[in-house]
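Listing S7. Sequence submitted for prediction.
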Amino acid sequence: MSISKRILTVQDISCLGQCSITVALPIISALGVECVILPSAVLSTHTGSWSGYTFRDLTDDMPDIIAHWEKYGEKFDCLYTGYIGNAKQLDILIDVRKKLLKEGAPIITDPAMADHGKLYKGFDLEFVKKMSKYINGSDYVLPNITEASFITGIEYKEEYGEEYIKSLISGLKDIGVKNVILKGVSYQPDKLGVCVSDGETYQYHFEDKIPAVFHGTGDIFSSVFTGSFVNGSTALEASAKAARFVCDAMLNTNGKEHTYGVNFESVLKKLF
């Protein structure tokens, strides 16, 4: 019997909302990979659809959790980070890289902090600067165009050509990122996809654009990508699988009745 690999994911728990850890845990598990969690915060809901949500910062708990694992010599095959609550947690994650990863374990970073040209609630430009430093050394970084724009300092554009996409990727490479999976790329009004690049080659995967906006799709994409990549898929194969799964989940969601996320559970069987 083969031994399952273990992915350590660090992001928040939004108790209601189908995002972050409540997405990563079932998706990575469905892909046959053990998913170990290090929560950055606990929220009653995600911040996109509700106001007045509760927020419990777990920054002070994270070092003790890490120390407990280190005491028993626990090591992980991959570090996958999503929504990080504050800049101090990024310093803690540098410690995780040094102490808890197996040799050669990929570092996969989804700098979840912005979309549609704006930062999420609770983030500011100081956090962006900290994130820009943290992603240095990441094997794969998975930003959307807004996040790539903030990190690189390149003007955000909703209308662009291939040279603009290449400039964002070049800016990320200059920071020290090894490979880029740029999400939300579109050169045609009816297509949406990703650009996979090592800074020298540019590969694309596109799907038919679905005329709807849902929360949590970026988290779903990154989770499918990470689990598939750790399972041995190439970055392009993992990106294509993730994009198709997101589209399937969106198509299985009634946006009028289910407004806070996507019904990914209905298509989870496709990952087994």
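Caption to Listing S7: primary sequence and predicted structure tokens for the chain studied. The mean pLDDT is 95. The longest strand covers residues 34-45.
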